[in-house]
Design goal:
Elements (H helix, E strand, L loop, with lengths): L4 E6 L2 E6 L13 H13 L6 E6 L24 H8 L6 E5 L2 E3 L1 H8 L2 E5 L3 E3 L13 H9 L1 H10 L3 E2 H7 L4 E3 L3 H14 L18 H15 L5 H14 L2 H16 L2 H15 L18 E4 L3 H12 L4 E4 L3 H20 L5 H9 L1 E4 L10 E4 L5 H14 L5 E4 L6 H5 L8 E6 L8 E5 L6 H13 L3 E5 L7 H18 L3 H11 L5 H8 L1 H11 L12 H7 L12 E2 L8 E2 L1 H14 L8 H21 L6 H11 L9 H8 L1 H13 L10 H8 L7
Parallel strand pairs: 2-3, 3-4, 4-6, 5-7, 6-9, 10-11, 10-13, 11-12, 13-14, 14-15, 16-17
Antiparallel strand pairs: 1-2, 7-8, 15-16, 18-19
Bound molecules: (S)-3-Hydroxyhexanoyl-CoA (3H9).
């Protein structure tokens, strides 16, 4: 039997412990599932065993099927999860699941096939397969509706939400909750079940019942999903499985589930989402930083600057229970910043997303100050002042003289050279970039920017603190715009070229949104505020080469005081404070006149060209970034785009997407654009060409 399953007879109970760290994934090829099956078979033939207790070693029961095995050959001599669960449905001695920690996907399906379930207070249950573009494929879609009813089961599976132990108990997924030691109590409880001769409860034999008509219920579910999930087949497939649970015998329902699962698991959507799952975890591994690198304890944080970024960053720390002092030497700005924080929390409370107690606790962790000296106690100081090199340098020079010797000095710059900032301090090894994205309390992405001299320990601390404040940290190198913004500039530039050549802003946005982005480039600009880019362009105008193709349409819009949503119009019009973008005919007129002034013959541009030009702009720049070592790996770029820029997750990020359509196609497309009359700016990245030449793809 595999060492990953420990089987031990404790009195009259056969205790089966899954011990496959780190999350007890139910691997086929490592024999984990076979081990459980063998243990049950052994106990069944052992007259001293009256029942089984199934539990997980370490922190959890099981995180589900081993995702890394999807799409790979399985050892035909070893049992699959479906084999095991089918066998469990025939066992005549009670099987009790002792659920602890994250119990997900196939792990929960295993527990649902047990006859009774007991859970510790730390248990978190979910059928999150939908997030991987698949569905619960080991009977979950058939058993859960039978246990808790389809109306409750369907949303859990379609959204993949996590529920705590108490919630699982209230729903009837779990029959008994334990505060103390799970193992001891589970053994006691199992013995009681056996002693009292409690019946074997098989979910597969339960009746599914529902007060409303099946057709009505399924019809509503289909409508809801069609409106909420674009280009994403898994949720609809889950509905079809639940329909099967409601209308077919259990065994036929399983067949439907299996068919739907097999279709989804080979889809590009699922491959992309699985890629992102592993990429997100891979991003935690930073070259030159050992796994056990020493870290500084961060118990107090200071944020310097109380503008939009400073307040959002402050909230991110308070949300994670970390005390933070927000400093602005301008009293008026500080008051406004603190008010913004309070207003944001109040709004979340009034939407019912936060209790007033938690809001008060978070606000209680935030202290405002007008004295820079108040950074003295902080372990981590994040500067979020105006994006101007001289201002940043002056702040860092002051921080250097006030901050604790071992404190980390971080800058939230989105463009400036961190090495230059670090050079004004006496501790460049403790200087790092923490590039938050606006709104910083909401956006998950955090670019951790390592300078030339940043020490491994500081990088390790920054990555860890990023996770602690529930961000997705990705380590990148220094260059203008780092990874995310450097690429997005190419994308926005291309969008501007497109409107100059013939498309209208809403046509570009429509094509990109149909591709799956949450928002097209022009809507994004309106949301972020067009004045920000305008200020940067004005600053950079002195260094712009006179021969460089430059689209002045955004400037022409800004000159009218139209900065986007906040001024009621930008590329679009927003009526009566609404956020709904309406086509702005005046902007269209500006665009058309602009082309005429430049002597550009406008032409009709198809959505395919729009998508390809914007995507290839991202991919090509991503390839350059990789060759310069600014991003450590292609999958890091994908994580940055999925978590920071609304790139459709079911397409896996720009670099993975390029792999799926073929790098040759990308290079050919770029060559075609370059051959067009206005395409001289297109040059295929040498890194991309090298990959093609070597028959490789991004990530190899
Ligand atoms: C499924 O069950 C399909 C069935 O319905 C049907 C079958 C027929 N497999 O997240 P962490 C690795 S689909 C393989 O940092 P945490 C992960 O890559 C599955 N590997 O830990 C990482 O590796 P590394 C449905 C997995 O404590 C390490 O474990 N289940 C799996 O922050 C630590 O991961 C899910 O979707 C896995 N299932 O969070 C749950 N899970 O160290 C997916 C993790 O090399 N998992 N790894 O980078 C999670 O959500 C979280 O990992 C969990 C723990 C909450 C469990």
């Amino acid at each position: 039997m595999t060492e990953l399953i420990h089987y031990e007879v404790k009195g009259n109970i056969g205790a089966i412990k899954i011990d496959n760290p780190p999350v007890n994934a139910l691997s086929v090829n490592k024999g984990v599932i076979q081990g459980i099956l063998d243990s049950i078979k052994e106990g069944e033939h052992d007259p001293s065993v009256s029942g089984f207790l199934l539990l997980g070693a370490g922190k959890n029961f099981s995180g589900g099927a081993d995702i890394s095995e999807f799409g790979k050959p399985k050892d035909p001599d070893l049992a699959t999860l479906r084999d095991l669960l089918a066998y469990m449905d025939t066992v005549t001695k009670p099987i009790i699941a002792a659920i602890s920690g994250p119990t997900m996907g196939g792990g929960l399906e295993l527990a649902l096939t047990c006859h009774y379930r007991i859970a510790s207070a730390d248990a978190v249950l979910a059928l999150p397969e939908v997030k991987l573009g698949i569905l619960p494929g080991a009977g979950g879609t058939q058993r859960l509706p039978r246990i808790i009813g389809p109306q409750r089961a369907l949303p859990l599976m379609v959204n993949g939400d996590f529920i705590g132990a108490k919630n699982a108990f209230d729903l009837g997924i779990v029959e008994h909750l334990v505060e103390g030691d799970l193992y001891d109590e589970a053994l006691r409880w199992s013995r009681r079940i056996i002693k009292e001769g409690k019946p074997i409860k098989r979910a597969s034999q339960l009746e599914v019942s529902m007060s409303e008509s099946v057709d009505e219920f399924i019809g509503k579910a289909r409508e809801d999903i069609a409106s909420r999930w674009r280009g994403y087949p898994a949720p609809m497939a889950i509905v079809e499985c639940v329909k099967a649970a409601l209308t077919l015998p259990f065994s036929d329902g399983l067949k439907v589930e299996r068919e739907e699962f097999e279709k989804l698991v080979v889809s590009n959507e699922s491959k992309s989402l699985r890629h992102l799952f592993f990429s997100e975890r891979q991003a935690n591994k930073v070259s030159g930083v050992a796994k056990n690198e020493s870290q500084l304890a961060v118990n107090a944080v200071a944020v310097v600057g109380s503008g939009t970024m400073g307040t959002g960053i402050t909230m991110s720390f308070a949300n994670a229970g970390i005390p933070v002092v927000i400093i602005d030497t301008d009293d008026h700005n500080l008051t406004r910043g603190l008010e913004t924080i309070k207003r944001n929390y109040d709004a979340t409370v009034s939407k019912g997303k936060l209790s007033s107690e938690i809001r008060d606790k978070r606000i209680g962790l935030i202290r405002g100050s007008t004295k820079l000296e108040d950074v003295a106690e902080a372990d981590l100081i994040i500067e979020a002042v105006f994006e101007e090199m001289e201002i940043k340098k002056s702040v860092f020079s002051s921080l250097d003289s006030i901050a604790k010797r071992d404190a980390i000095l971080a800058t939230n710059t989105s463009t400036l050279d961190i090495n230059e900032i670090a050079a004004v301090t006496s501790r460049p090894e403790r200087v790092i970039g923490l590039h938050f994205f606006s709104p910083a309390n909401v956006m998950q992405l955090l670019e951790v920017v390592r300078g030339e001299k940043t020490s491994p320990s500081v990088i390790a601390t920054a990555m860890a603190i990023g996770k602690r404040i529930k961000k997705v940290p990705v380590c990148v190198g220094v260059c203008d715009g780092f990874v995310g913004n450097r690429m997005i500039h190419r994308y926005i530039r291309e969008a501007e070229y497109l409107i100059e050549e013939g498309a209208l802003p809403h046509e570009v946005d429509k094509a990109i949104e149909s591709f799956g982005f949450a928002m097209g480039p022009f809507r994004m600009g309106d949301l972020a505020g067009l004045d920000i880019g305008w200020a940067i362009r004005k600053r950079k105008s002195k260094t712009r080469h006179p021969d460089q193709r430059y689209v002045s349409i955004p400037d022409e819009i800004c000159e009218r005081g139209w900065f986007g949503q906040k001024t009621g119009q930008g590329y679009y019009k927003y009526e009566n404070g609404s956020r709904t973008p309406l086509v702005n005919e005046e902007v269209n007129a500006i665009v058309i006149a602009h082309s005429a002034n430049k002597g550009i013959q406008r032409r009709e541009i198809q959505s395919q060209e729009i998508v390809e030009r914007l995507m290839f702009a991202l991919v090509n720049e991503g390839a350059n970034i990789l060759s310069e070592g600014i991003a450590q790996r292609a999958s890091d770029i994908d994580v940055i785009y999925a978590f920071g820029y609304g790139f459709p997750r079911y397409r896996g990020g720009p670099m993975f997407y390029a792999n799926t359509i073929g790098l040759e196609k990308v290079a050919e497309g770029i060559r075609d654009f370059a051959a067009g009359s206005l395409g001289s700016h297109w040059v295929v990245s040498p890194h991309l060409l090298k990959l093609i030449e070597d028959h490789k793809i991004f990530g190899d």
